[in-house]
Amino acid sequence: MADYNTIVVGGGQAGLAASYYLQQHDVDHLVLEKHQLAHTWRTQRWDTFCLVTPNWQCALPGHPYPGTDPHGFMKKDEIIAYLDSFIAAVKPPVREGVAVQRLARRAGGGFELNTGAGDFSATQVIVASGGYHTPIIPRLAERLPASITQLHSEQYRNPGALPEGAVLVVGSGQSGAQIAEDLHLAGRAVHLAVGDAPRCARFYRGKDVVDWLAEMGYYDIDVGAHPLREGVRDNTNHYVTGRDGGRDIDLRRFALDGMKLYGRLQGLEGGTLRFASNLSASLDAADAVYNRINASIDRYIAEQGLDAPAPSLYQPVWQPIGDRAQLDITEAGISTVIWCIGFTPDFSWVDLPVFNGKGYPGHVRGVTAEPGLYFLGLPWLHTWGSGRFSGVARDAQYLVEHLLRSRP
Hints:
By secondary structure, this protein is α/β, with parallel strands linked by helices. It folds into 2 domains: 2-133 and 345-406, FAD/NAD(P)-binding domain (3-Layer(bba) Sandwich); 136-339, FAD/NAD(P)-binding domain (3-Layer(bba) Sandwich). The protein has helices spanning 13-24, 39-43, 76-90, 174-185, 209-215, 251-256, 279-304, 329-332, 392-406, and strands spanning 2-9, 29-33, 59-60, 63-64, 94-96, 100-105, 111-115, 118-127, 134-135, 149-152, 166-170, 190-193, 203-204, 207-208, 260-262, 265-269, 272-275, 326-328, 334-339, 343-344, 373-375. Strand 7 (111-115) and strand 8 (118-127) form a beta hairpin. Helix 1 (13-24) runs parallel beside helix 3 (76-90) and helix 1 packs across helix 9. The relative contact order is 0.17. The model has no long low-confidence stretch (mean pLDDT 95).
């Protein structure tokens, strides 16, 4: 059995950041990656995917954004190139293509990791496999006609890869809203089942909203100080886009341009889909968040006495006249359904008593109650940026320093 001081499970940005700091402190370690380093970025993004946060927030340890457009938004190929250059700089000790099937306590102390490539042992383990593992596809999908092509958002690549015909996108979070826009811009007939995701402005009062929020200290708020506390981890991300230099995503404007909007998908009867009558409420709630964020920026500008363009209030450009309660699949010519309703975590391979009733690991800033077991790269592990390029370095440094203080 190969033995290491520390094993990192997962070779995305979190696992790579952990390896960076472990090397800084000469800690003997190994990264186990189920597929290929940065696998998710390489395989689970559509062709026109780009960052929704500006490039300056790409701040992996020792590897800030190297380009000439800090306020732009890197596209998929540029993101992969950025990660590949980080991998080349870190040179992590890694075994790719190795899936951990079970992580448990080892008799005598430490941990044992069982994999298809043999067993490993470690004194300490950092689980850096992220929090988005199992695509959510409802059981309703089983009853759709066999002629309908069904994809999860992670499988979508481009409009041309889909069969001819109309497309139903289910879910309006970041992926759903951007995929609906991608299809819409390509001239496809799009039907969108709207969820409860909030939205925010791309630019407001002279600069990117992300720049304002960073200046206001929002990205430094830790989960314990957030008004929702740990409940913020369940929040859906705001929809906005960095496409074509960045812009708002306004579902109401999509509707003006011909996209068909519905409330939450509720069921299927024969060949007819049923939707909840909550479209107006969902759009209003998203707009309220949009205006509330802008109002917080207004207050900050006023308090600081800053010179900035005048404030504004978003006013709806379209209102649904009643809710579309149903959609006949055949009459609408639906050929494809894209499920954009997220993922669930799957830590079933971690055979240790650290999870809550939702299957989410209990921890304080990534430190669990099991000595030597850590989690890294989860959404809101510590701050908003914990699962992102902007904040994972801070979390990785903290965990490695804790690991050094705690090791036998």
